Amino acid sequence: MKLDHIDKGNEFDFGKTSNDYAVYRDIYPDSMYEKLISFGVVREGIKVLDLGSGTAILPINLSRIGAHFTASDISENQIRFGKEKAASLGINNISFKVCSAENTGFPDNTFDSVTAVQCFHYFDPEKAAEEIFRVLRPRGLFCKIFMDWLPYKDDKIYEMEQLVLKYNPYWTGGGFEKFRYSFPAWAESRFDMETVHSYNAVLEFSKENWLGRIKSCRGVGASLTDEKLAAFESEYRSMLEKYDEPLLLTHQIHIEVYRSEKKG
Hints:
The protein has 264 residues and is α/β, with parallel strands linked by helices. It has 8 helices and 7 strands. It has a 7-stranded mixed β-sheet.
């Protein structure tokens, strides 16, 4: 994938990270999933489409609620790993589809909710919003979620970002600041604002899990050559030696819930 506004137009492929992604990217706190339930995004018996699902982290973690999920992603490798993980856990209420967010191929009015976790910025916002509006049932919900680490609050995060930039100077995935919300242009004439919720959570990582999480990120495993990735891993392991375990790292979690203006 190549996008002009991401990493200065340089190519990246999350499919290259699928092995690490399936193991190390299941990092969202229980509080986030409980909020999605309380906001009505996931409920028993409804149909939910998870866009940019990667290895189906959200559907797997919320499968217990009894909704039927469809995990979709543009990467065949990500979907393959998601299928394998769901099967290994005996989860049978998740379907899988390789497709883009802008062209899912589903009929009109198929889903009660659509979710997009840590991925909407990779989509064409107008085309994706129109597709989400089309596949949602009247008054259905679209939930957009993002979680940021905070370099301005934690030297460990800042130090990691500088190392990523050493190996990949084109990476634009760092430097997160405090969340500020404004109603997006893509939602106009399609969605009403239902809920905006932003909060901080301290996440706990072993050094190995944090290293795996960073290796699976866009600027590292999805972009670097095998040689550069090995060099990055070696240097970052040495850098992490000075820190105690577990690593306690504050993240911002942003949840935006929109209700379709479509009438029944």
